[in-house]
Specification:
Elements (H helix, E strand, L loop, with lengths): L1 H26 L5 H5 L6 H11 L5 H13 L13 H36 L4 H15 L2 H15 L12 E2 L4 E2 L4 H34 L2 H8 L4 H9 L4 H26 L4 H11 L2 H29 L9
Antiparallel strand pairs: 1-2
């Protein structure tokens, strides 16, 4: 087990180095940040001073090596636009993103698994057909279209929920949360639903297909022959045997929620790391862009490692050491 974990960690380090190199190299060709930091009347001498102060005249390998060395200590440099340490900006915006992702993940898991089990067990019921037909919306429509539609319906037309912002927050010192205020919960509903809809659809269809496959196996027929109740068969046997592929998709989907939050946060002006990234792209703020992509890659790597370890907990038959 420890050997597998060590091997996964080495692979994770390799992935992080590759993502860091690609993102840093790409962002250094998207524009000149000095042009956005000074006015058009700035002299060439002033521009040269800024470039020298930021280290932009150094070779790309030197800049990347400096970036890796600082990132290893949690220092991603200063924002070109704000002049503030990037790690402070990320930590300031991180609670908003993580709370949005957490609520979206809960919505996707609860609705997706529940609807998937129901449509797998009662596949001929009218409600199952309705759920499957409705789930096509989550697959077909882009996230920003769904968000705009929810804003028009619930914020503009019905005026039940706010259309943007995070609402009221409570400062806990190291964390600003919206979970402790009514306005905070009202503000998070629409972006969380928007972000969760696509993931809910994926989980629903995966759980349904796995349930249909498991329900046709011999051990389910044997369980019925033993006289077990339908509840015990559906949840104690069938659902349990669908969890391995489902957990794989859930792990990937949680990473996708963090990555796709860029679009949702932009539509709802949610003050998280995704919106910060979009603003950084507009200003060619390379330190923030590189740090954000490294953060997203780290989340994917950590989630993948957790999913690998959960396989053994759910199904001891899996020999993780042989992977």
């Amino acid at each position: 087990m420890f050997g597998v974990i060590a091997r996964r960690l080495v692979q994770s380090i390799g992935v992080m180095l590759a993502v860091s190199a690609i993102s840093f190299a790409l962002f250094n060709f998207v524009g000149d940040p000095v042009s956005n930091m000074v006015g058009q009347d700035a002299t060439q001498e002033r521009r040269a001073e800024i470039r020298e102060a930021l280290g932009l005249d150094d070779p790309i390998l030197v800049q990347f090596g400096r970036f890796l060395g600082n990132a290893a200590t949690g220092d991603f440099g200063l924002s070109y636009r704000l002049g503030t340490p990037v790690n402070e900006l990320i930590l300031e915006r991180l609670p908003a993103t993580l709370e949005l992702v957490a609520v979206s993940a809960v919505i996707a898991l609860v609705l997706g698994i529940s609807a998937g089990v129901y449509t797998g067990i009662r596949r001929k019921a009218w409600l199952s057909r309705f759920l499957l037909s409705s789930s096509l919306i989550g697959v077909s429509l882009p996230t920003f279209i769904i968000g705009i539609g929810l804003i028009y319906l619930f914020a503009v037309h019905l005026r039940w929920l706010p259309s943007s912002g995070r609402g009221g927050v409570v400062d806990l010192g190291w964390w600003k949360t919206s979970f402790l205020t009514v306005d905070g919960w009202r503000a998070i509903i629409l972006p969380a639903l928007t972000l969760a809809l696509f993931q809910t659809t994926m989980i629903l269809r995966l759980v349904r297909s796995e349930m249909l496959e498991v329900m046709r196996t011999d051990f389910i027929k044997f369980a019925r022959a033993r006289g077990l109740s339908e509840r015990a068969i559906n949840f104690g046997h069938a659902l349990k045997n669908t969890l391995v592929p489902v957990i794989t998709i859930i792990g990937i989907n949680i990473g996708n929620l963090i990555a796709f939050s860029v679009i949702t946060e932009t539509v709802f002006q949610w003050p998280g790391t995704g919106l910060m990234f979009i603003q950084a792209v507009d200003f060619v703020d390379v330190p923030i862009m590189a740090a954000y992509l490294c953060f997203v890659a780290l989340m994917f790597v950590a989630i993948s490692l957790i999913v690998d370890l959960l396989y053994v907990v759910i199904d001891p038959r899996i020999r993780i050491g042989s992977n």
